[in-house]
């Protein structure tokens, strides 16, 4: 597995489609930081690290509004073959402000709105709504 972030997005998407409560995947630092942003924005309930290093697993608890999933679409923007970078002025709202973009900046992983407020650009990792 080369692209762990795409794998994470696919596991979350499939978990919501199947009506699962939790999904598990191999743990990396980037995935933990992305999950923290998603928890802060109420797209996920919680995260937990299971196991011992180096075979750690990240368990994400999915968030539902009633019986509806909190994420209807999740897209990987920057891929290993084609990296997508934007300056702070190029970061636009996702779905007219109804969704978020997750950006990897020099100050860490954050939403597009936070990056715009802090005047930071970076690699656009995901868009979700």
Percent strand: 25-35%
- Discrete helix count: 3
* Average pLDDT rating: 96
Q: Given the helix and strand composition, which structural class is it?
A: alpha+beta
CATH topology assignment of the largest domain: Ribosomal Protein S8, Chain: A, domain 1
Element string (H = helix, E = strand): HEHEEEEEEEEHE
- CATH architectural group of the largest domain: 2-Layer Sandwich
User: First CA to last CA: what distance?
Assistant: 26 Å
Report the C-alpha radius of gyration, rounded. 14 Å
Overview of the structural elements:
By secondary structure, the protein is an alpha+beta fold. 26% of the residues lie in helices and 34% in strands. It is built from three helices and ten strands, in the order H-E-H-E-E-E-E-E-E-E-E-H-E. Strands 6, 7, 8, 9 and 10 form a five-stranded antiparallel beta sheet that branches. A three-stranded antiparallel beta sheet has the order 1-3-2, with helices on one face. The longest helix has 15 residues, at 4-18. The protein is globular, with a radius of gyration of 14 Å. The model has no long low-confidence stretch (mean pLDDT 96).
Task: Outline the fold blueprint.
Blueprint: H1 4-18, E1 22-26, H2 29-40, E2 44-50, E3 57-62, E4 64-65, E5 68-69, E6 74-76, E7 85-86, E8 100-105, E9 108-111, H3 112-117, E10 122-128
Antiparallel strand pairs: 1-3, 2-3, 4-5, 6-10, 7-10, 8-9, 8-10
Provide a short characterization of the protein structure:
The protein has helices at 4-18, 29-40, 112-117; strands at 22-26, 44-50, 57-62, 64-65, 68-69, 74-76, 85-86, 100-105, 108-111, 122-128. With 129 residues, it is an alpha+beta fold. It is globular and about 40 Å long.
């Amino acid at each position: 597995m080369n692209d762990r972030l795409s794998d994470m997005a696919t596991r979350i998407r499939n978990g919501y489609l199947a009506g699962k409560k939790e999904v598990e995947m191999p743990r990396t630092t980037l995935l933990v930081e992305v999950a923290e942003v998603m928890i802060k924005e109420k797209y996920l309930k919680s995260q937990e690290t299971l196991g011992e290093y180096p075979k750690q697993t990240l368990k994400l608890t999915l968030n539902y509004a009633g019986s509806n999933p909190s994420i209807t679409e999740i897209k990987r923007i920057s891929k290993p073959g084609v990296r997508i970078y934007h300056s702070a002025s190029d970061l636009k709202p996702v779905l007219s402000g109804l969704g978020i973009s997750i950006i990897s900046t020099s100050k860490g992983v954050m939403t597009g709105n936070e990056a715009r407020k802090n005047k930071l650009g970076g690699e656009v990792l995901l868009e979700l709504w």
